[in-house]
Design a protein that fits this description.
Layout lengths: L6 E2 L3 H22 L5 H28 L9 E2 L11 H10 L7 H35 L13 H23 L4 H25 L6 E3 L1 H26 L22 H4 L17 H30 L5 H23 L4 H24 E3 L2 H15 L3
Parallel strand pairs: 1-2, 3-4
Helix pairs in contact: 1-2, 1-4, 2-4, 2-6, 2-11, 4-5, 5-6, 6-7, 6-11, 7-9, 7-11, 9-10, 10-11
Length: about 400
């Protein structure tokens, strides 16, 4: 496909309509179930549903990447200028006949377009969330201009709307730049930022949400874990988008060695096309090894920090449930990461690994957004006093 046909905006209106129709059902369901509740509760219910679908979108995006369906429709936003693969049947059939195992097949085209439909629906939900947040802000603000408890600033939703539009632009570049590794990795990172934004709004926007006291040192440790996790996710995205998962197929060694041959300059040259160096030469296998092994080494540090964080949280009664979820997610990431290596990158394990990373982002966001400075009494008398301050058993 030539450069001029990479963008074909003919089906844009119909695609937006599909997204709006897909979002209409969830919006009607949320408001139907909450029609007798206060406006702030309806906004919160919409946030929760949008968060749920965004998590699903991240998983489906991973499924699209892992099944090599990212170029199933090699133009944007439609499929060969059509709203669905049905209208592009002849073009897809011709591509599939020329290259039966290539990037364009009927199945891959449907996977790619379903991902775009779901992304458009999430975008439509965020538009609805933004509108209702501003309306809820007006209703929830008292006459003196002071917001009521649980009234979250609508600028949060506005920022989320801006971010999802930016994500849409990166989604377009992912296709039109032919799975350029840096763009695909940033697209994944942006999806997780979107998840964190929505998670923070759910935690902070509930009228009955109780923020739990946490010592400042533990909050800093949680923030450190979040930063390290973000870096590890970027490294993991770089592994996935460069197809470097199987560069090391043994564990704990790599290629039978503790320090295999690695080409860091090629592996971490960020601005290059898939499978080649910046000068267009085929990338060395040692570069893929470097990409994989750095991610593995970083995993040891991140898992250790998060395991220690879970242990520290478990010592405080108010945070015990959070600590158990965090520990379970750390175990899931360790198990699925090892499975990807020793079981030859099975699809289910790879999906669970991406889902576990997203869940860790959401869990740490939940902890940070729900924490407040510990009172002197709680800090002085340990977990029992912290439990009494929080009001939890």
């Amino acid at each position: 496909m030539n450069a001029q046909s990479l963008y074909n905006l003919t089906p844009l209106t119909s695609l937006l309509l599909v997204g709006a129709l897909l979002a209409l059902g969830p919006v009607a369901w949320v408001y139907g179930r909450n029609r007798h509740h206060a406006p702030l509760q309806r906004v919160q219910a919409l946030r929760l549903f949008t968060l749920f679908l965004t998590f699903d979108l991240i998983l489906f995006g991973a499924f699209t990447r892992l099944t090599d369906s990212g170029l199933g429709c090699p133009d944007w936003p439609g499929c060969y200028g059509h709203t669905s693969p049905l209208g592009a049947g002849n073009a897809i059939a011709a591509e599939q006949a020329a290259m039966p195992t290539g990037p364009v097949t009927q199945a891959k085209a449907w996977i790619e377009m379903l991902h775009r439909y779901l992304a458009t629906a999430v975008g439509a939900l965020i538009v609805a969330m933004t509108v209702t947040s501003w309306l809820g802000w007006r209703v929830g603000t008292r006459a003196g201009g002071v917001p009521c408890q649980g009234t979250l600033s609508p600028w949060w939703a506005t920022l989320t709307l801006f971010w999802v539009c930016l994500q849409g632009a990166f989604g377009a570049l992912t296709v039109t730049m032919k799975l350029f590794p840096a763009i695909v990795t940033l697209h994944l990172a942006g999806a997780l930022v979107l998840l964190a934004l929505l998670g923070a709004q759910v935690v902070r926007g509930g009228a009955t949400t109780q923020r739990l006291p946490m010592p400042i040192r533990l909050r800093r440790w949680t923030l450190l874990g979040f930063v390290l996790l973000a870096l590890q996710i970027l490294l993991g995205g770089w592994v996935s988008t460069n197809y470097a998962v199987l560069a090391c197929s043994d564990f704990p060694l790599c290629q039978g060695r503790w320090w295999p041959e690695m080409n860091f300059s090629q592996g971490f040259a960020l601005w290059r096309h898939l499978g080649v160096t910046g000068t267009g030469e085929p990338i060395d296998f040692s570069a893929l090894t470097a990409i994989h092994y750095v991610h593995r080494l970083m995993a040891y540090l991140v898992l250790a920090v998060l395991a220690l964080l879970a242990w520290q949280l478990n010592r405080r009664a108010a945070w015990r449930a959070h600590s158990r979820v965090l520990a379970a997610l750390v175990g899931l990431q360790l198990t699925t990461g090892l499975s990807n290596v020793v079981l030859d990158w099975p699809l289910l394990s790879a999906l669970l690994h991406t889902g576990g990373a997203a869940a860790l982002v959401l869990m740490l966001t939940w902890i940070l957004a729900g924490a407040t400075s510990a009172t002197p009494a709680a800090a002085s008398f340990g977990p029992g006093a912290l439990s009494r301050v929080s009001g939890l058993p």
